[in-house]
Amino acid sequence: MAAAPEPGPPLFELAGVSLRLGDHTVLDHIDLTVAGRGITVVVGPSGAGKSMLLRLLNRLEVPSEGEIRFRGRPLDTLDPLALRRQVGMVFQRPAPFPGTVRDNLAVADPDPKGGDDDYLAALRSADLGPDFLDRSADELSGGESQRMCLARTLVTNPSALLMDEPTAALDRDARLRLERTARILADAGRPLVWVTHDLDQAERLADETVVLVAGRVAEGGTRERFLAGEVRE
Questions:
Q1: What is the pLDDT of residues 108-126, one digit of tens each?
Q2: Of 28, 60, 72, 120, which sits with the fewest C-beta atoms within 10 Å of its C-beta?
Q3: Could you state, in order of their start, the residue ranges of all structural domains in the chain?
Q4: pTM for the complete prediction?
Q5: Residue 50 burial class via C-beta count within 10 angstroms: exposed 0-12, middle 13-18, buried 19 and up
Q6: What is the DSSP letter of 190?
Q7: 144-180-187-57 Cα dihedral, nearest 10 degrees
Protein backbone atom coordinates (compact mmCIF):
# COMPACT_ATOMS: atom_id res chain seq x y z
CA MET A 1 0.00 0.00 0.00
CA ALA A 2 1.15 3.53 -0.76
CA ALA A 3 2.23 5.86 2.00
CA ALA A 4 -0.62 7.70 3.74
CA PRO A 5 -1.37 11.13 2.28
CA GLU A 6 -0.55 14.22 4.26
CA PRO A 7 -3.48 15.57 6.30
CA GLY A 8 -5.47 18.42 4.80
CA PRO A 9 -9.03 19.66 4.31
CA PRO A 10 -11.45 17.00 3.03
CA LEU A 11 -12.18 16.72 -0.66
CA PHE A 12 -15.75 15.52 -0.07
CA GLU A 13 -17.91 15.15 3.02
CA LEU A 14 -21.10 13.09 2.90
CA ALA A 15 -23.62 13.25 5.75
CA GLY A 16 -26.64 10.94 5.80
CA VAL A 17 -26.58 10.52 2.02
CA SER A 18 -29.08 8.12 0.49
CA LEU A 19 -29.93 7.45 -3.13
CA ARG A 20 -33.16 5.78 -4.15
CA LEU A 21 -34.03 4.89 -7.74
CA GLY A 22 -37.72 4.03 -7.81
CA ASP A 23 -38.32 1.52 -5.04
CA HIS A 24 -34.65 0.49 -4.88
CA THR A 25 -32.33 1.97 -2.27
CA VAL A 26 -28.92 2.15 -3.94
CA LEU A 27 -27.09 3.96 -1.15
CA ASP A 28 -28.33 4.02 2.42
CA HIS A 29 -27.36 6.80 4.85
CA ILE A 30 -23.74 7.18 3.86
CA ASP A 31 -21.51 9.14 6.23
CA LEU A 32 -18.08 9.54 4.70
CA THR A 33 -15.13 11.92 4.54
CA VAL A 34 -12.89 11.69 1.46
CA ALA A 35 -9.32 12.84 1.99
CA GLY A 36 -8.11 15.92 0.15
CA ARG A 37 -4.87 14.22 -0.89
CA GLY A 38 -3.77 10.94 -2.41
CA ILE A 39 -5.94 8.15 -3.79
CA THR A 40 -9.12 7.03 -2.06
CA VAL A 41 -10.15 3.63 -3.40
CA VAL A 42 -13.78 2.51 -3.17
CA VAL A 43 -14.19 -1.26 -3.26
CA GLY A 44 -17.08 -3.64 -2.74
CA PRO A 45 -19.15 -6.39 -4.35
CA SER A 46 -21.10 -5.83 -7.56
CA GLY A 47 -24.28 -3.91 -6.84
CA ALA A 48 -22.86 -2.30 -3.71
CA GLY A 49 -23.38 1.21 -5.12
CA LYS A 50 -19.75 2.10 -5.89
CA SER A 51 -20.35 3.74 -9.27
CA MET A 52 -23.46 5.52 -8.04
CA LEU A 53 -21.47 6.97 -5.17
CA LEU A 54 -18.97 8.35 -7.68
CA ARG A 55 -21.76 9.80 -9.82
CA LEU A 56 -23.11 11.66 -6.80
CA LEU A 57 -19.78 13.41 -6.34
CA ASN A 58 -20.06 15.42 -9.56
CA ARG A 59 -23.87 15.60 -9.66
CA LEU A 60 -24.50 13.09 -12.40
CA GLU A 61 -26.90 11.82 -9.75
CA VAL A 62 -28.55 13.82 -6.96
CA PRO A 63 -29.02 12.31 -3.48
CA SER A 64 -32.52 11.52 -2.31
CA GLU A 65 -31.54 12.80 1.11
CA GLY A 66 -28.50 14.01 2.99
CA GLU A 67 -25.79 16.51 2.09
CA ILE A 68 -22.56 16.35 0.10
CA ARG A 69 -19.88 19.02 0.42
CA PHE A 70 -17.00 19.64 -1.98
CA ARG A 71 -14.10 21.36 -0.26
CA GLY A 72 -16.51 22.61 2.38
CA ARG A 73 -19.20 23.91 -0.01
CA PRO A 74 -22.60 22.21 -0.38
CA LEU A 75 -22.71 20.47 -3.74
CA ASP A 76 -26.25 21.62 -4.46
CA THR A 77 -25.14 25.26 -4.36
CA LEU A 78 -22.57 24.77 -7.13
CA ASP A 79 -23.21 25.01 -10.86
CA PRO A 80 -23.05 21.41 -12.15
CA LEU A 81 -21.03 22.27 -15.27
CA ALA A 82 -18.52 24.33 -13.30
CA LEU A 83 -18.29 21.52 -10.74
CA ARG A 84 -17.54 18.95 -13.45
CA ARG A 85 -14.66 21.07 -14.71
CA GLN A 86 -13.24 20.95 -11.19
CA VAL A 87 -14.09 17.29 -10.55
CA GLY A 88 -13.22 15.41 -13.74
CA MET A 89 -14.52 11.88 -14.31
CA VAL A 90 -13.08 8.99 -16.30
CA PHE A 91 -15.45 6.12 -17.00
CA GLN A 92 -15.03 2.36 -17.16
CA ARG A 93 -14.79 2.08 -20.93
CA PRO A 94 -13.01 4.66 -23.08
CA ALA A 95 -15.40 6.68 -25.22
CA PRO A 96 -13.39 8.43 -27.93
CA PHE A 97 -15.15 10.87 -30.24
CA PRO A 98 -14.62 10.72 -34.02
CA GLY A 99 -11.55 12.44 -35.41
CA THR A 100 -8.07 12.95 -34.07
CA VAL A 101 -6.82 13.08 -30.52
CA ARG A 102 -6.65 16.87 -30.94
CA ASP A 103 -10.35 16.85 -31.90
CA ASN A 104 -11.13 14.87 -28.74
CA LEU A 105 -9.26 17.30 -26.51
CA ALA A 106 -11.03 20.21 -28.22
CA VAL A 107 -14.38 18.77 -27.12
CA ALA A 108 -13.35 19.54 -23.54
CA ASP A 109 -11.57 22.83 -24.28
CA PRO A 110 -12.05 24.16 -27.81
CA ASP A 111 -10.01 27.31 -27.25
CA PRO A 112 -7.23 26.65 -24.73
CA LYS A 113 -5.41 29.75 -23.52
CA GLY A 114 -2.06 28.14 -24.19
CA GLY A 115 -3.05 26.69 -27.57
CA ASP A 116 -1.51 23.34 -28.41
CA ASP A 117 0.81 23.64 -25.41
CA ASP A 118 -2.20 23.01 -23.16
CA TYR A 119 -3.15 19.94 -25.18
CA LEU A 120 0.41 18.64 -25.07
CA ALA A 121 0.59 19.18 -21.32
CA ALA A 122 -2.62 17.16 -20.88
CA LEU A 123 -1.22 14.36 -23.04
CA ARG A 124 2.01 14.36 -21.08
CA SER A 125 0.11 14.14 -17.78
CA ALA A 126 -1.80 11.16 -19.18
CA ASP A 127 1.44 9.42 -20.24
CA LEU A 128 1.03 10.07 -23.98
CA GLY A 129 3.67 11.65 -26.19
CA PRO A 130 3.23 14.71 -28.42
CA ASP A 131 3.03 12.49 -31.52
CA PHE A 132 -0.41 11.35 -30.37
CA LEU A 133 -1.98 14.78 -30.94
CA ASP A 134 -2.71 14.20 -34.60
CA ARG A 135 -3.31 10.46 -34.39
CA SER A 136 -6.76 9.17 -35.30
CA ALA A 137 -8.64 8.33 -32.12
CA ASP A 138 -10.09 5.16 -33.61
CA GLU A 139 -6.60 3.76 -34.24
CA LEU A 140 -5.55 3.82 -30.59
CA SER A 141 -5.20 0.69 -28.47
CA GLY A 142 -7.50 0.21 -25.49
CA GLY A 143 -4.93 1.55 -23.04
CA GLU A 144 -4.03 4.49 -25.29
CA SER A 145 -7.69 5.31 -25.76
CA GLN A 146 -8.32 5.33 -22.02
CA ARG A 147 -5.29 7.55 -21.43
CA MET A 148 -6.56 9.88 -24.17
CA CYS A 149 -9.88 10.08 -22.31
CA LEU A 150 -7.91 10.92 -19.18
CA ALA A 151 -6.07 13.65 -21.12
CA ARG A 152 -9.43 14.96 -22.35
CA THR A 153 -10.49 15.26 -18.71
CA LEU A 154 -7.20 16.84 -17.65
CA VAL A 155 -7.25 19.55 -20.32
CA THR A 156 -9.73 21.56 -18.20
CA ASN A 157 -7.25 21.31 -15.29
CA PRO A 158 -9.62 19.73 -12.73
CA SER A 159 -8.58 19.88 -9.10
CA ALA A 160 -9.69 16.27 -8.49
CA LEU A 161 -10.44 13.14 -10.51
CA LEU A 162 -13.10 10.46 -10.23
CA MET A 163 -12.09 7.14 -11.83
CA ASP A 164 -14.90 4.60 -12.32
CA GLU A 165 -13.18 1.22 -12.81
CA PRO A 166 -11.04 2.79 -15.57
CA THR A 167 -8.90 -0.32 -16.08
CA ALA A 168 -11.72 -2.90 -16.23
CA ALA A 169 -11.46 -3.27 -20.01
CA LEU A 170 -7.64 -3.13 -20.19
CA ASP A 171 -4.99 -5.81 -20.27
CA ARG A 172 -2.49 -6.13 -17.44
CA ASP A 173 0.25 -3.94 -18.91
CA ALA A 174 -2.17 -1.13 -19.80
CA ARG A 175 -3.80 -1.46 -16.38
CA LEU A 176 -0.51 -1.07 -14.53
CA ARG A 177 0.52 1.84 -16.74
CA LEU A 178 -2.68 3.72 -15.94
CA GLU A 179 -2.20 2.97 -12.25
CA ARG A 180 1.29 4.49 -12.40
CA THR A 181 -0.13 7.56 -14.11
CA ALA A 182 -2.77 7.89 -11.38
CA ARG A 183 -0.11 7.71 -8.69
CA ILE A 184 1.96 10.44 -10.37
CA LEU A 185 -1.11 12.68 -10.60
CA ALA A 186 -2.03 12.10 -6.96
CA ASP A 187 1.52 12.66 -5.73
CA ALA A 188 1.59 15.93 -7.69
CA GLY A 189 -1.37 17.18 -5.63
CA ARG A 190 -4.45 16.10 -7.59
CA PRO A 191 -6.54 13.79 -5.36
CA LEU A 192 -8.34 10.84 -6.93
CA VAL A 193 -11.34 8.74 -5.98
CA TRP A 194 -10.93 5.38 -7.73
CA VAL A 195 -13.64 2.70 -7.89
CA THR A 196 -12.61 -0.92 -8.36
CA HIS A 197 -13.73 -4.44 -7.52
CA ASP A 198 -10.11 -5.64 -7.77
CA LEU A 199 -8.64 -6.04 -4.28
CA ASP A 200 -5.10 -6.41 -5.63
CA GLN A 201 -5.48 -3.10 -7.44
CA ALA A 202 -6.88 -1.50 -4.28
CA GLU A 203 -3.84 -2.74 -2.37
CA ARG A 204 -1.48 -1.24 -4.95
CA LEU A 205 -3.21 2.14 -5.18
CA ALA A 206 -5.03 3.02 -1.99
CA ASP A 207 -3.93 5.66 0.46
CA GLU A 208 -7.41 5.34 1.95
CA THR A 209 -9.92 2.52 1.39
CA VAL A 210 -13.71 2.73 1.54
CA VAL A 211 -15.62 -0.56 1.48
CA LEU A 212 -19.24 -0.50 0.31
CA VAL A 213 -21.50 -3.48 0.90
CA ALA A 214 -25.23 -3.38 0.09
CA GLY A 215 -25.24 0.39 -0.25
CA ARG A 216 -23.59 1.11 3.07
CA VAL A 217 -20.07 1.86 4.23
CA ALA A 218 -18.91 -1.40 5.76
CA GLU A 219 -17.34 -1.27 9.17
CA GLY A 220 -15.88 -3.74 11.60
CA GLY A 221 -16.43 -7.39 10.75
CA THR A 222 -18.15 -6.85 7.41
CA ARG A 223 -15.33 -4.67 6.12
CA GLU A 224 -12.65 -7.11 7.23
CA ARG A 225 -14.60 -10.06 5.80
CA PHE A 226 -14.79 -8.38 2.38
CA LEU A 227 -11.12 -7.50 2.36
CA ALA A 228 -10.36 -11.10 3.34
CA GLY A 229 -12.42 -12.33 0.38
CA GLU A 230 -15.25 -13.76 2.45
CA VAL A 231 -17.91 -11.44 1.05
CA ARG A 232 -18.22 -12.30 -2.64
CA GLU A 233 -19.67 -10.48 -5.62
A1: 999 999 999 999 999 999 9
A2: 72
A3: 12-227
A4: 0.90
A5: buried
A6: -
A7: 60
